[in-house]
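Side project, low priority. Logging it here so it doesn't get lost.
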Amino acid sequence: MNPGGCAECLRFVTSKEAHVEELPWGPHEWLARPGLVDSKALALVRVTMPPGRAHRFHRHPCFEELLYVVSGQVRQWVGRESRILGPGELAHVPRDEVH
């Protein structure tokens, strides 16, 4: 059992353990989220989004999120502010913030 008390939660997550969701705007490979790792407010997901694709605005009431760009460019909204981000840049999305 992990120190936080979650018997099923992982300390190390490989591609084999990641939870993959196939969504219309690209596959989501969850590497950290509540229930997968022993955290209540942390999420890490690798998304491969084809050019020209986007998803609807949404919020995560239970965790905050960091969005890190590996390649390409993305216009990212956080609340009422947007920026174009490129490789090596990120956006921090506070808990329950529209993005």
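Brief comment: Residues 30 and 59 are 16 Å apart (CA to CA).
Revisit when time allows.
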